Amino acid sequence: MQSPSHELGPPHEAMFLILPYLHLFELLSITQVCKSFRDALHHDILPWLNIVVDKPLNSRFSDDFLVKIMAKAKGRLRIIAMKNCFRITNDGLLQVITSNPHINKLYLQGCTSLTIEGVIGAVKLLTKANHRLKILAISGIYNVKIEDFQTLCHLMGINQMQMKNRKKNYYNTRCELYAFKQESDQPSIDVDICPKCGEIREVFDCPRNSCNTRIQQQRQQQNQVLMECRGCFLCVPRCEECGVCTKDDELGEAACTDILCLNCWLQLPKCSFCNKAYCNQHAYQQSLYPGGFLCSYCSFHATQSS
Ligand SMILES: [Zn+2]
Ligand SMILES: [Zn+2]
Ligand SMILES: [Zn+2]
Ligand SMILES: [Zn+2]
Ligand SMILES: [Zn+2]
User: What is the pLDDT of residue 13?
Assistant: First the structure.
């Protein structure tokens, strides 16, 4: 790579348009490209108003780091999305929320060191004085009771009707919660009371046509709606690729620990040895093999025996 010469002026204006769309690790990498980028980012507050922490930074993301990064928004932070940042504690979160009262979207999925008491404390601060918290995501946080869920809904102004009419939530698109640029008028929370086990978890709908028809028929007949395949990930096993329920179906053999319905399995490439398929998320575990690939299990045994 060419080293930037000292005659270079400030970065192209287009760069500033892109910055607010980047994840934190991308922003931090840009600050290390050259002095002019670093200075530009140091003086620009806009990229730091929406902070998304995902892989690969999540496992190292600590309270100290959180407070330091969030300080760059100078109190004007709008969105915090931290996924699986299991080192973040109530203290770190509250510190950031206290100094950034305008946050309106808070994603904390899988931040397992947070407690529900900490989350409720944060939401109380963010719904003070008519401020609206539009989105809250807390799936993966332990020991959330029905009362806690109701408290959160009450604070955010979510009523039962809104919960009922909300957009369908499909298992295979669960990660797209990060489409946080999308605006919605209704406040929303990512968890619900699972109709099967009664726990507060993320509850998924079924994208399978025949399941939807059945649910609609039940509704029309005013039967008590059974919604057999609506439920949390523990109650209703689902295909990793397409999200359909897979209870009584024949399954395809997966090389990862995920479930694959037969339809999806047929379409995915398979290990040349054992004929198992990887879901797309784990396809990186394939090792090259003439005419195809080997799954990690077969490739390990191939190296052992050669
Ligand atoms: Zn359940
Ligand atoms: Zn499938
Ligand atoms: Zn179903
Ligand atoms: Zn294999
Ligand atoms: Zn998988």
Answer: 75
Same domain, 191 and 128: yes
CATH number at residue 292: 2.10.110
pLDDT, tens digit (0-9, with 9 covering 90-100), for 262-306: 999 999 999 999 999 999 999 999 998 888 999 999 999 888 876
State the pLDDT at residue 1: 46
- The answer to whether residue 6 sits within a structural domain is no
Cα 169 to averaged position of ligand 1 atoms, centre (Å): 14
Are 130 and 277 within one domain? no
Distance (Å) from CA 145 to ligand 5 centroid? 30
Q: Using the mean position of ligand 4's atoms as its centre, give its distance from the Cα of residue 281 in Å.
A: 17
Residue ranges of the chain with pLDDT lower than 70?
1-8, 175-185, 222-227, 306
Domain that holds residue 128: 49-205
> How many domains does the chain divide into?
2
Is residue 44 included in any domain, yes or no? no
Q: How far is the CA of 200 from the centre of ligand 5 (A)?
A: 25
**How far is the CA of 273 from the CAs of 32, 72, 278, 302, in angstroms?**
44, 52, 13, 10
Q: End of a domain among 205, 222, 246? A: 205
What distance in angstroms lies between residue 276's CA and the mean position of ligand 2's atoms? 14
Read off the pTM: 0.83
Residue 207's closest CA among 258, 249, 242?
Answer: 242
204 C-alpha to ligand 1 centroid (Å): 10
